[in-house]
Amino acid sequence: MANYQIEIERNNVTLAQFLRYVRQQCEKKGIYMEIDRDTFEKPLTESSYSYSVINGEKKCHSAEYQTRTYFRRKLASYQTTQGFTRYYYTDELEEYKKTELCRYDWTENGDDAPCRAEICRTFAYDYQTYILNHDGSMFNEICEFTFDDEKRGHGYYYQVNRDSE
By the 8 A CB rule, do 62 and 45 touch? Predict the structure, then answer.
């Protein structure tokens, strides 16, 4: 294993320009960048999972987008003789869907945890993999991109690999 670190920020670039530049810089340092553009833009599932083992307990956290169905009273209106529009709620219910980020926290026994801490975050344009092993070795890769207009934006990439302590 080798110790290395790379950190890149780019502004006023397209997503393709940003990812191409990051890939080139990683190749110059002999580092492999594992992020695929299609998956970075449209992951199969958008979710985050992490845990840390503290005093034998595995503290876990997760978050994922879920679409839920809700009901609300229908809104209706009528025109007054003076030409004003009045709004009111009827007794009829209508169904609507809302996508929300749902978060969950729980604790488990940490004796069988494969490492001391781990983060796996996969959202559109927001990716992170972090692994802290029991021996102190660590890997962390972060890639984020934010659009400032329809085509251009700014991005951040970070990767570090550290041998055991």
Answer: no
| CB half-sphere exposure, 122, CA atoms < 13 A | 14
Q: Using DSSP, how many helices (H) and how many strands (E) does the chain show?
A: 2, 8
- In 3D space, the residue among 60, 25, 50, 22 whose CA is nearest the CA of residue 129 turns out to be 50
Q: What is the mean pLDDT of residues 27-37?
A: 90
100-109: pLDDT as tens digits: 999 999 999 9
Kind plus residue range of the DSSP H or E element containing 22:
helix 15-28
pLDDT interval class at 34 (50, 70, 90): confident
CA distance linking residue 14 with residue 28, whole number of Å? 21
> What does the alpha-carbon distance between residue 52 and residue 61 come to, in Å, rounded to a whole number?
9
Greatest distance between any 2 Cα atoms in the chain: 81
